Amino acid sequence: MALVDRIGRALTGAPLLLTSVDALVDWSRGQSLWAMPMGTACCAMELIAASFSKFDFDRLGTFPRPDPRHTDVMVVAGTVTRRMAPAIARLYEQMPDPKYVVAMGNCAVSGGIFFYDTYSVVRGIDEFLPVDVYIAGCPPRPESLQDGILQLRELIQTRSIAAGHSHPREMVLPSAGDERAGSVDARERPSVPHVPVRPTDPGGGPE
Amino acid sequence: MAVDIESRTPVEDAEGRTVEELVVNIGPSHPSTHGVCRIIAHIDGEIVTRAEPVIGYLHRGIEKMCENRTYLQIVPLTDRLDYVGSMYANWAYCRAVERLASIRVPERAEYIRVITCELQRIASHMMAIGSSGADTGAFTMFVWAFDVRERVVELFEELCGARLTYSYVRPGGVARDLPDGWTDACRAVVDRLPAKIEEMDRLFFGNTIARGRLKGVGVLSADDAVAWGASGPTARGSGVDWDLRRDDPYSVYPRFDFDIPLGDAGDAYDRGRCRLWEAVESCRIITQALDQIEPGPVHAEGFPRLLAPRQGDAYDRIESARGTLGVFVASDGSTRPYRVKFRSPAFCNLALIGRLAPGHTISDLVVILGSLDPVFGEVDR
User: Fold this and answer.
1) From edge to edge, which strands make up the β-sheet containing B312-320?
2) Where in chain A is the domain with CATH 3.40.50.12280?
3) What is the least distance, in Å, from the CA of A176 to any CA of chain B?
4) How many CB atoms within 10 Å of residue B360?
5) What is the mean pLDDT of chain B?
6) Is B60 within 8 Å of A48 when comparing Cβ atoms?
7) Strand A100-104, strand A133-135: pairing
8) What pLDDT was estimated at residue B363?
9) Hey, how many other C-beta atoms are within 10 angstroms of the C-beta on B215?
10) Could you give the 3-state DSSP secondary structure of residue B191?
């Protein structure tokens, strides 16, 4: 909620809101992540449960839409077999940019219980999709899924609309595997000049 | 498996013009296919002339994996077969292993198995009714049914820590005894349920729109149901009076007094309504079981961790929420089974789609599929 904090700070001084386009765009992107529920197996039950009365996904702005063209984030819930993978890849291609992928459950993360001894299961959807958030569990609880979506929201705020740039982030994320929006780990490269996060920061850029 | 999606049969319409059938591919990712089913539908205008289910999109090789696991390690795999009703596959598998290894299960364990499996039947039927409500546009029903299911899932969570994949029924008994206060919580849920179900019956099955969408759709005759190997509510909706709990009794079922709801028309409406009233009968069974259950051990004594049954094979079947669930286990005398085969009711019931869909519209095809209640973990294994 970096932008909201900045709004708060801005309002204490003058009735002015100073922000970057990046921050505004990232903030708005994170607020309403419509999900493409790609439920293939057991985890689909928890995916449904997360949307219903007890857990109520809607309050986080996430709403399942069956059409990939309406959605921002694909939640792959369940085992992906070699036979199913091309269909999922095709649905992913139909989603409009910017798009994100959440791997829900051990099967989608790594193959899980079906990692060994089987001939038909894809060992993790990151073999063919760029995964942003991994949620472990067999199946994960609906709360875990919601936490995953909140983490994705945080992750989105580290991305810049300028290709190849990202913003520093308080929580350090592993940098491997993400080729789309540049390195997630901001320690690797200096960030673009940006509205200072803390007003007490000494002035000047990273160097 | 190559599917011939291009082949079209030229047909002659009423005015003598040659027209072609349109081939529509539905799935494997479609909101109303209840999983990863793919149906290739040949349509003439809006009317389905041929429907062909294509399966295998969730084939995980569970039967093959079983050959590489010890008898106890297979239990978690059976959870993932029918993920809407995990307890059944647990139980059917354990019964086959117990028969193979000649293990006697303590009475309390049998009662707990009956209670948990009847709770599972309620949860599973709620999912089936709810999704068939969603198929016909009655989303309220889905939310209501899921709410009931959530109550049952909470009970399971208290029992074994898992919401979906329980691994609670183990060869020789159950994993652990009922926690303190569980029977009261269970009784509270079960006591409230019949009134709730009656309300759902009025809300959904009494509604004009649902009646219009479900009645007369996908009519399955009793003869066809038997000939095609249908079982469970799919067959009972057509009036086939067959329930393993009564006709081939296992466990402690002969001690309970319950009825088998039957339909007569054999359409989607009767199948759905059979499921709803079976949930009420399940409540009756659970109440009786909770009254009769006595303290005692919940697992067979002297049961080895690494089971190596004698050479031979065993088959056992139970009445799952979807029908006759059979498990065949062959042993070569080692600690791992030589072959495990699951006779899955969802697979047999799904085969009926090609029989029931022709003559109906595309939107009814979805309703028929929902009324057969397939779970693809079990169909594809």
Assistant:
1) B312-320, B323-331, B337-343
2) 33-150
3) 28
4) 21
5) 87
6) no
7) parallel
8) 87
9) 14
10) helix
Query: Can you give the pLDDT at residue B47?
Result: 87
Residue in B with minimal Cα distance to A81? B58
Chain B environment of A88 (Cβ under 8 Å): 29
Contact flag B28-A48 (C-beta cutoff 8 Å): no
d(CA B42, CA B54): 14
Q: Is B114 helix (H, G, I), strand (E, B) or coil?
A: helix
Q: Which amino acid is at B329?
A: V
- Answer yes or no: is the ipTM higher than 0.90: no
* Closest Cα in chain B, distance from residue A51 (Å): 10
pLDDT one-digit tens code per residue, B156-168: 999 888 888 898 9
Q: Are B231 and B352 within 8 A, CB to CB?
A: no
What local confidence, expressed as pLDDT, does residue B359 receive?
Answer: 87
Nearest CA in chain B to A92: B29
Quick check: helix, strand or coil at residue B233? helix
Query: Are B256 and B231 contacting, i.e. CB atoms less than 8 angstroms apart?
Result: no
CA distance A22 to chain B (A): 35
Say yes or no for a CB contact (<8 Å) between A41 and B58: yes
- Kindly report the CATH number that applies to the domain delimited by A33-150: 3.40.50.12280
Distance CA B65, CA B58 (A): 14
Concatenated DSSP letters of B130-146: HHHHHHTT-HHHHHHHH
Q: Scan for tokens 């609670």, then name that residue.
A: B168
What is the rounded distance in angstroms from the CA atom of residue A72 to the CA atom of residue A36? 7
Domains of chain B in sequence order: 67-344 (1.10.645.10)
Name the pTM for this structure.
0.82
What gap in Å lies between CA B357 and CA B24, rounded to an integer?
Answer: 14
